[in-house]
């Protein structure tokens, strides 16, 4: 190691330099996703910047600079004759890839407004994004393309958690699983085929349940899963053996979370359980994907935080529930298994 290398590694400013550099790397990813360039590299590559630019309708010298940056982080790889080939990481940015929607969503001007104005949000204690756009869900209702990207992004992000929740938790002893705020049944469509002894109730607002019935039927689960419309702030279906709250509570303030949990507690039997599928933040300073997500939640909603085990325990106690166990899943996700106190 040279003296210059040693100085670089020990300079505390380099941590900040690397974080700032992340903005450039993300911008390059957004170019690849926006142009659909990953599809061309997969189907026709390796390609030179000029060959790729012709296919994408882009400027060749500018695209070449982007490819050079992406090659430095392993999204593409240099090949013979000045060409670039797509790597497995880059393939996730193809049209049918798992990460394209996530990149496009995070690069969208509406979403960028929230993150760019985070200092304003922190100063005033209220989301600058909500002040400007009226809230995240209002923005989605007003912009069909943004809503499409958001749905695709949420699904791609949830897939690892869904698969892990279906396979790593022990559903033994559960006869009926009620998925509260379960959307179009992503979780149940993964859980039920793996656990043929289970029956389920999918519970969400009316317009969501209307489309969810088709998704459940297409999965061949209509005979095992009842779809029920309602409002979890008012009540939830009764007599379930377990109640699943999958990525629900992090969307709401503490006060609203307690209301949801109290309604679940009223509906469940004394032997029932509540399964909370969320990112549970560590108490220490270790990096965690939930901490990154929490910055987005702060920017978009202000009072809808990611929470630690201790914070979930406090919410549960207000609904006469306690933590029985925390099952660690993939991608830093967890299932909190809560029981009546």
UniProtKB/TrEMBL annotation:
<feature type="domain" description="O-methyltransferase C-terminal">
    <location>
        <begin position="117"/>
        <end position="319"/>
    </location>
</feature>
<dbReference type="InterPro" id="IPR036388">
    <property type="entry name" value="WH-like_DNA-bd_sf"/>
</dbReference>
<dbReference type="InterPro" id="IPR036390">
    <property type="entry name" value="WH_DNA-bd_sf"/>
</dbReference>
<dbReference type="GO" id="GO:0046983">
    <property type="term" value="F:protein dimerization activity"/>
</dbReference>
<dbReference type="GO" id="GO:0032259">
    <property type="term" value="P:methylation"/>
</dbReference>
<dbReference type="InterPro" id="IPR016461">
    <property type="entry name" value="COMT-like"/>
</dbReference>
<keyword id="KW-0808">Transferase</keyword>
<keyword id="KW-0949">S-adenosyl-L-methionine</keyword>
<dbReference type="InterPro" id="IPR029063">
    <property type="entry name" value="SAM-dependent_MTases_sf"/>
</dbReference>
<dbReference type="InterPro" id="IPR012967">
    <property type="entry name" value="COMT_dimerisation"/>
</dbReference>
<dbReference type="Pfam" id="PF00891">
    <property type="entry name" value="Methyltransf_2"/>
</dbReference>
<dbReference type="GO" id="GO:0008171">
    <property type="term" value="F:O-methyltransferase activity"/>
</dbReference>
<protein>
    <submittedName>
        <fullName>Methyltransferase domain-containing protein</fullName>
    </submittedName>
</protein>
<dbReference type="InterPro" id="IPR001077">
    <property type="entry name" value="COMT_C"/>
</dbReference>
<feature type="domain" description="O-methyltransferase dimerisation">
    <location>
        <begin position="18"/>
        <end position="95"/>
    </location>
</feature>
<dbReference type="Pfam" id="PF08100">
    <property type="entry name" value="Dimerisation"/>
</dbReference>
<keyword id="KW-0489">Methyltransferase</keyword>
<feature type="active site" description="Proton acceptor">
    <location>
        <position position="250"/>
    </location>
</feature>
């Amino acid at each position: 190691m040279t003296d210059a290398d040693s100085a670089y590694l020990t300079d505390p400013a380099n941590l900040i330099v690397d974080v700032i550099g992340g903005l450039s790397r993300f911008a390059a990813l957004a170019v690849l996703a926006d142009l659909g360039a990953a599809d061309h590299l997969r189907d026709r590559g390796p390609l030179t910047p000029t060959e790729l630019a012709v296919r994408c309708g882009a400027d060749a010298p500018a695209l070449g600079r982007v490819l050079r940056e992406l090659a430095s982080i392993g999204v593409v790889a240099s090949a013979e004759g000045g060409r670039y080939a797509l790597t497995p990481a880059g393939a996730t940015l193809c049209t049918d890839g798992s990460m394209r929607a996530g990149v496009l969503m995070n690069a969208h001007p509406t979403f960028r407004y929230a993150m760019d104005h985070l200092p304003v949000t922190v100063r005033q204690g209220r989301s600058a994004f909500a002040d400007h756009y009226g809230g995240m869900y209002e923005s989605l209702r007003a912009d069909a393309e943004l809503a499409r990207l958001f749905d695709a992004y949420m699904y791609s992000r949830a897939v690892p958690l869904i698969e892990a929740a279906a396979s790593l938790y022990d559903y033994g002893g559960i006869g009926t699983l009620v998925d509260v705020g379960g959307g179009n049944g992503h979780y149940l469509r993964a859980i039920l085929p793996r656990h043929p002894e289970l029956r389920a109730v999918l519970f969400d607002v009316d317009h969501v349940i209307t489309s969810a019935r088709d998704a459940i039927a297409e999965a061949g689960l209509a005979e095992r899963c009842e779809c029920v419309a309602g409002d979890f702030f008012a009540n939830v279906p009764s007599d379930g053996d377990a109640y699943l709250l999958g990525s629900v509570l992090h969307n709401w303030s503490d006060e609203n979370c307690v209301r949801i949990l109290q309604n679940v507690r009223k509906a469940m039997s004394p032997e029932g359980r509540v399964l909370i599928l969320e990112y549970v933040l560590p108490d220490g300073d270790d990096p965690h994907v939930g901490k990154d997500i929490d910055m987005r939640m702060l920017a978009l909603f202000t009072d809808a935080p990611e929470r630690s085990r201790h914070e979930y325990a406090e919410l549960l106690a207000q609904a006469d529930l306690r933590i029985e166990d925390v099952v660690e899943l993939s991608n830093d996700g967890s299932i909190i298994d809560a029981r009546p106190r």
